[in-house]
Write a structure and sequence with these properties.
9 helices
Length: 180
Amino acid sequence: MSSVSSCPLQAQDMQQAQKLIDQAQKYLYNNPKQASYYAAQASALFPEDEPSEVRAQAMILYCQAEQLLGNFDLSIKNLYDTQKYIHPTNKKQMAQLCSLMGRVYSKLGDYNKAIELNDKATEKVHSKKFDSLKKKWEMDYITKDTLKGWVVLNEKRAGKGITAEEYKEITGEEYEASEE
């Protein structure tokens, strides 16, 4: 017994969704109404009750378009609905969602909420070096001293290394500056 509403997306549906998302992205800033239409069509291809990062991408585009059209209440409602489709480990997509929510709250005049969400968005994304250094650590290719060097670099040139918090996330230990 199979239920039609929960059948998995077929390959052609996924391709169609990606084409619609691409169209939505293409028209987002010069024709947001058209972008909204394409993004809504892409989102509708996915089952309501299953997490899907592609659906979340379509919904974020839809909300961006609606925000550009001045439909802030509709945009914020759908952004909250979008959260359930984003996998918790997809920090980039969560950051994108929080950033857009912050922008919409700003347009609605709730600046404290906007700042809170923008802060949350920046917390969601690790430094550029984090993922590669974490892999190297897990494979025993680098030492704690090497990681400490990346923290020092980041302190001297922001964004070029890793933060003390990322050091702790990689090693499981608090960062303590080396005695040199």
